[in-house]
Amino acid sequence: MELKDKTILVTGSTDGVGRVVAERLGAAGARVLVHGRDAGRGKATVAAIEAKGGKAEFLAADLASLAEVRRLAEAVLARTDRLGILINNAGVGTGGQNAKRQVSADGYELRFAVNYLAGFLLTSELLPLIKASTPARIVNVASAGQQAIDFDDVMLTHGYSGVRAYCQSKLAQILFTVDLAEQLDGTGITVNALHPASYMDTTMVRQAGITPWNSVETGADAILNLATSPALEGRSGRYFDGQRESRADAQAYDEKARRRLRALSLELTGQSSATSREQHP
Length: 281
Known about the structure:
The chain has a single domain, classed as NAD(P)-binding Rossmann-like Domain (Rossmann fold, 3-Layer(aba) Sandwich). Helix 3 (about 65-80) packs parallel to helix 4, helix 4 (about 110-130) runs parallel beside helix 5 and helix 5 packs across helix 8 (about 255-270). The protein is globular. The chain has helices at about 15-25, 40-50, 65-80, 110-130, 160-185, 205, 215-230, 255-270, 275-280; strands at about 5-10, 30-35, 55-60, 85-90, 135-140, 190-195, 240, 245. An eight-stranded mixed sheet has the order 3-2-1-4-5-6-7-8, sandwiched between helices. Helices cover about 45% and strands about 15% of the residues. Helix 1 links the parallel strand 1 and strand 2 (about 30-35). By secondary structure, it is an alpha/beta fold.
């Protein structure tokens, strides 16, 4: 894929694998919209991209707040009339063995809110812009750690564990990927999800008390493959383990589960079904 002057948004790109992806895209000639919570790290990432001749701009937002997700979308819309690639990479890890249940600014279980719901809303808000930029791609950075969504207790008010919350949120991303790909069939937008690499050397992994055994460069290679490889043009709704196409948890391929998740997500993000039909014909 020709990246020169293509505008790309990478969420969670001031640290870890997201930063490596952003820097590589900038070096390839793309205009990178860098996202994160910390202005200092954002400025440093932009400087690193510009030092190699790339173009970048930092957009701050805390994805634990749906209002800030909407403001992030507004900031993107104010800066460009085209968005060729959206990489939903930002996320919260398991929190380690003794993780306590936390909630987002909107009162939702934190990992579900940040890892899944924020990307669902951001993608929905930016979809008209992405449609105007075809051929375009959406990449959802999920995980091989997956657990079926318990629709009777999505917010995990009973039997909470950080691992369970993380795995459920990552599977939700994959259900969303398969669902969105079906809705966007024939539009020129390719939507895929992946597990980039196991236990990369990231802050998230170290905070979980795990010794990293994969590099962020390996994970970046996998993400960039989905974002830019010509071989994936038109191959949508897939799940990849690294650079190899794989199969996610069975729930990802359950149409009834995907419909339930879509309805719940529209309700939680305050989007009407009419708006959904308009954006996802």
